[in-house]
Write a structure and sequence with these properties.
Length: 432
């Protein structure tokens, strides 16, 4: 069994990885106007830059998922961190738009490495805590966006956008060493309630029959379908919202920074809050996590509509409404991950989440490009509102269906883990 101190060390390391990785991945939003001026490109062409990285990430999700379930996850995550640093450096030296497009696409390789993080965390913490821990890790994403924005705004005028990429690339390589030497590999399934007090002797690994059985889980089907639409809003907002405030609402300087900082900080708080609420309601009903997820996306859709309707001259009201919207937007994220792991066997959890993210990426890859195309013909206001509200409503529909079937799938998994626990006891009779 791993000590409490080490498992929280692992959380801290992965939080740092996600924070700095998201800073690198999302600071391009802040640097978009500078990059567009450097290469003299349109919004649609800039949208294609993000789309290219998302397509590559989508292609690598099943690869990472299989590798994590088959081999040591900690060492593979160290490799992902090294790839992040190396590809970011290649992106920084791109001489023209085509090279920039290609090298930015290569950064998508490590963007799809997150299933290994959640799989490791699931083997360090029991189900009743996973929503909260996932929420803590996922608050690194908006904080990473804020850190990237601060880094970009503070340094782009002195070292240029290329210099900013050099810095984040170095951080990726440093973290690769920390993960490689500092994170230990836990037993798969060792944190499940049925395994409490049992020293596991069996090593469970990926198998194709177990992986194929994922598609027989009725809860995963609507979760996978909602995933196609679920990250449209996140990709549109992170990629285009900075530009929207600058170009269509006339924000600049201090007000631009304050508005984004407040929104991102409140958004960050929404991840652990949503995860904690999901854990609390999960203790009362197996549908608890999905109820919190559904309420989050519906509330976000209503509040965003009201927020974008605030006149550009009323910056105070816009800030308040934007912050309120940001609080509910991330409620679904930690609860979806926790639900996937609530109903899947430990040796295919990376694969199960990789499939979720693959389907999400298939939809999200189109989001920045579609938003840019709509903006070229209409406005970023219309693009953001249309894409976010419509997809959140679709997600709420699929969460409703998933909530109906999750109790059955959860019960099946608990039965499977009980059978494994009994086999482990039989192999170590002195522990019975």
């Amino acid at each position: 069994m791993h000590t409490t101190r080490h498992r929280w060390f692992v959380v801290a390391v992965f939080f740092a990885f996600m924070l700095l990785h998201q800073s690198d991945r999302l600071l391009i939003s802040t640097l978009t106007p500078d990059i567009m001026r450097t290469f003299q490109i349109t919004m649609a062409q800039m949208g294609a830059v993000s789309t290219g990285a998302l397509i590559v990430a989508a292609l690598f999700y099943p690869i990472w998922g299989y590798l994590y379930d088959r081999y040591g996850r900690a060492k593979l995550l160290a490799l992902a961190s090294f790839i992040w640093g190396a590809t970011t450096w290649l992106n920084a030296i791109a001489p023209g738009y085509r090279a920039f497009l290609a090298t930015r696409a290569s950064t998508g390789i490590d963007d799809s490495s997150y299933p290994g993080i959640y799989s490791l965390i699931a083997d360090y913490f029991p189900p009743k805590m996973r929503g909260k821990i996932n929420g803590i890790l996922e608050l690194a994403m908006p904080l990473g966006f804020l850190a990237g924005m601060i880094l970009a705004l503070g340094l782009k005028d002195t070292i240029g956008w290329r210099g900013v990429f050099y810095i984040t690339g170095v951080l990726g390589i440093i973290l690769a060493a920390v993960i490689f030497f500092g994170v230990r590999e836990p037993k798969r399934g060792g944190s499940e309630p049925e395994m409490a007090g049992i020293e596991m002797v069996t090593t469970y690994r990926f198998s194709w029959p177990t992986a194929r059985a994922l598609f027989s889980k009725r809860t995963l089907r609507p979760l996978y379908l909602q995933g196609f639409f679920g990250v449209f809003p996140w990709n549109v907002i992170t990629f285009w919202f900075f530009t929207y405030l600058e170009k269509e609402r006339g924000y600049s300087g201090t007000m631009l920074f304050v508005t984004m900082a407040v929104a991102v900080l409140v958004l960050a708080a929404g991840y652990p809050l949503g995860g904690a609420l999901g854990d609390a309601l999960f203790r009362r009903t197996p549908r608890g996590r999905l109820i919190v997820a559904g309420v989050g996306v519906l509330t976000g859709a209503v509040l965003l509509t009201l927020t974008l309707g605030v006149p550009a001259t009323n910056q105070g009201l816009f800030l308040v409404m934007l912050a309120l919207t940001a609080l509910f937007i991330p409620f679904a994220a930690p609860n979806v991950v926790a639900t996937v792991y609530d109903i899947t066997l430990p040796e295919v959890r990376s694969t199960a989440l990789a499939i979720q993210y693959l389907i999400e990426s298939a939809g999200a890859a189109l989001a920045p490009l579609i938003a840019g195309a709509i903006a070229d013909r209409s406005s970023l206001h219309d693009a953001i509102l249309l894409i976010c509200v419509s997809t959140w409503l679709v997600c709420a529909f699929f969460f409703t269906f998933a909530a109906r079937t999750v109790p059955h799938d959860l019960q099946v998994l608990r039965g499977q883990m009980y059978e494994r626990a009994e086999r482990e006891k039989a192999m170590r009779p002195q522990q019975a």
